[in-house]
């Protein structure tokens, strides 16, 4: 019997590829651990930068959207509105009407919101696997607050560029959605026939009521679940932000980022953009800041910034992969869509820049609305002031709710 167990556990049956993967992952983990020991001061500073970004801005700005969306889904509002928006979501993107809610809310709140709500709809059975893969590919976008405030004003110091960057970013997102409507369309060829007739307002209200009854949770239970789930998701997001902030700093300290960026020397890309582009592929905020700090032409900077915003950076992609991990939604379609949007947004910013330079109306109308004075700067200052205490209060509230529900992890 002992001989049989030993024979079963023998490594002879292990494939070479699996063994190489194990060795690779082990080497990366050991290298990361050694780097953390060699550069403790730099790692701590990078980790604090990521923490400050999360608890000052990311958490307080996203939590209201997450909690509201949880309530709307629980009350059946999303199901009812989805029935009404079927008439335009299905022809445009070949997804159910409930995807309209995910699309609009995802653009308003920023990534990774679209992935979270797509996964929620999939778990509730309101969309199929293929429809979810289409939906997640174009419902994750940068928020207008980030584009107009952080990018246009904070990095470029030119509010008028906000509309140009937004046009390229959201335009690329829209075109990706149009293209993804053809993804695996044979697998749901009966969906269009099933949803061809658009329901009336009365039918939509009945669907909303039926969805709420099917959910069955009381108002108190629903609010508690909304807070705890939203905080759980944002804790995961914060962990990824800090992790990739540290990884980016370690690549800089070890010089690996310059070694990797050396591969770009075979391309016509100016040398000044090599390291910033690699940093942006990891974490977009760091990369955008480095790109706008160069002395290269404005159009070149805009092209790379739009490319990075469309690609999302591996930090955000890792967050979305984590949100999709407990569903059957495959990550590959989303990843391929990011490459497509990166190039589409870069092309659209070239087109938009030509209009920006040559259209009199465009030049005269944009600077009239200065988001630094009227919108983004007060909000950013408010986040810096109330963001940390708000974050701590909401985390404490989540812990209290779980204690009262008896759901504290043992």
From TrEMBL:
Keyword Transmembrane helix set for record: yes
Keyword tRNA-binding recorded? no
Query: Which residue windows are transmembrane per the record?
Result: 22-39, 51-75, 95-114, 135-156, 162-183, 226-247, 302-324, 336-356, 386-404
What keywords sit in the KW lines?
Membrane, Transmembrane, Transmembrane helix
Which protein, by its recorded name, is this?
Sporulation integral membrane protein YlbJ
What organism is recorded for this protein?
Answer: Halobacillus yeomjeoni
Its ancestry begins with: Bacteria, Bacillati, Bacillota, Bacilli, Bacillales
Supply the gene name.
ylbJ
